[in-house]
Amino acid sequence: MYKVMSLWGFILLSVLISIFTGVRSTGVGTDTEAYITYFYQSSIADGFYNRHEIGFSLLMQLFAKTISSVEVFFSFVAFTITLAYLHTFRKVYSKCFFDKFPSTSVMTIFFSLLLFSSWYITSTTNGLRQGLSLVFLYWAIVELFYSSKIIKFIFLYVVAISFHYSALLIFPFLFLHYLRFGHVFFIWVMVALGYIAGLNELAVKILSEILNLPVYAYVKYYSLEKGSENLGGGLYEGFIISFFLYTFFWPVLLLFVLKIKSSFKSKLASTENIYILLKIYLLLSLVYFIMGFGPFSNRYALFSWLLIPIMQIVIINLSLNLNSNRIVPFLVLFSSLIFFLYFRLDWIGFILQ
Q: What is the mean pLDDT of residues 329-344?
């Protein structure tokens, strides 16, 4: 009963955070103003407003033509992303740790990590379509990799695609579900080396030419769509060492913790299921290693980066056993709330005006 009450407390906190996100300043999120424009355009459209993917367009048009409040729409999107992410985390936790349901301390630290995460704020204020897509994609992959629920996976995967067509990029890698972790890790390292050497870009270019598909041109010259005057040039162009190392760091750290905590983890966690989580992260980061040769490569890295808070809580819980401490988590949550409101949502800027 206590854990149920605790869960409802975090759902209520999610509602409050989503409302704050929904009523944010137009300066928070580089695409916020554009989404506001699209929202009001869809409200006066005579037919189906098809500026975006079908799922997102239908959702936007539903709110635009019934409630006519972009703030409510933004809040709903943020709440959907947050709630779906929390649901997926609880599913992963129940598989990875023997206590099955995260305690209040664990949930508190996890929620704090979410609020501190650059990728959560990006998904709820800037990349709304991809944020919605990724949380349903994570849910779908977890159902497939942990429970082999094919029908549920297909349904959730279709939902993810309907919000952002980039979800299709993970389809060629789903076979990794059937490989042992060691084989997946080897493939991941080889593809990562191919990214460093520029071989992945060459492979995509050749395959695009053979199959007569515009994949290479779309990725390489994406900056033109974003208003750049330089063909193929743009922000976060190609291989960036900091992005690469950041992507590489988290699974390596989790592997390291698994090795050094071998005696402790046997009492707390399922090593086999944590390796499945690692396999999911490796699968998602392959999209970045293969497609991240053009401008705005971070949009491909986001596939795995948004999963990092779940990786972090597993690392922290393995290392510290959060169930033994209740005071520190609430101090961390308080700090994360202040950070999220005053810096992520720019309340400090609003107050100083």
A: 91
